[in-house]
Amino acid sequence: LIKLTFVLKIIITALVVIPALAFLYVLLRLMKPANPPADLAPAINLLGIRVDRVTMEEAMQRVERFIREDTPHMIFTGDATGLMKAQDDPELYKIINEADLVTADGAGVVLSSRLLNQPLNERVSGCDMVGEICKVSARLGRSVYLLGAAPGVADKAAENLQMMAPGLQIAGCRDGYF
Fold it and tell me: Cα(29)–Cα(25) distance, rounded to whole angstroms?
């Protein structure tokens, strides 16, 4: 009976300690490292999709270069949903991997990168990028065209963006219902 009780104690302890250690490990992996290594690759691979390791400032430096090149460029702001959809859609998968810039637009992407020991610098969301791209465009004397959303939304966005980025030229607006 004593041996059985001891064995039960070991089993119960193992059932409690192992999940607790696993939880602690995951928690520590998710925390941003205080001093990330300087020799990290410029991009990571999540589910076969390249995600560029950029901060907002670095992304805007690339955007400025894209604008100065005066040729079309594609930016994909990938969240977990977009990366998962690309797994079932070969065309989307190809489009994302051929994009000129792919940013981590979601906490899930950033947390996944940390769990895989490929930490991304930060979340660079598409919503935040729009305002920053407009500031770069205004500074360079370039215009933007706003397309999408319900009727009137793009017009209101144009007003807000012009307040955010003085001097911004709006080439035009169009709702997404045509």
Answer: 6
The per-residue DSSP string of 14-32 comes to HHHHHHHHHHHHHHHHHSP
pLDDT tens string 113-138 = 888 888 888 999 999 999 999 999 99
Condensed to tens digits (0 to 9), the pLDDT of residues 37-93 reads 666 789 999 999 999 999 999 999 999 999 999 999 999 999 999 999 999 999 999
Residue type, 127: C
Query: CA torsion 33→35→39→43, rounded to 10°?
Result: 40
Task: Kindly state the tokens that stand for 134.
Answer: 């407009």
Q: How far apart are CA 119 and CA 165, in angstroms?
A: 32
Rounded distance between C-alpha atoms, residue 93 and residue 70, angstroms? 26
**What DSSP string describes 125-159?**
-HHHHHHHHHHHHHHHT-EEEEE-SSTTHHHHHHH
pTM here?
0.78
Alpha-carbon span 77 to 96, nearest angstrom = 9
Measure the CA–CA gap between 118 and 52, rounded to whole angstroms. 11
Q: Tell which residue, 73, 79, 63, has the closest CA to residue 120.
A: 79
d(CA 52, CA 105): 11
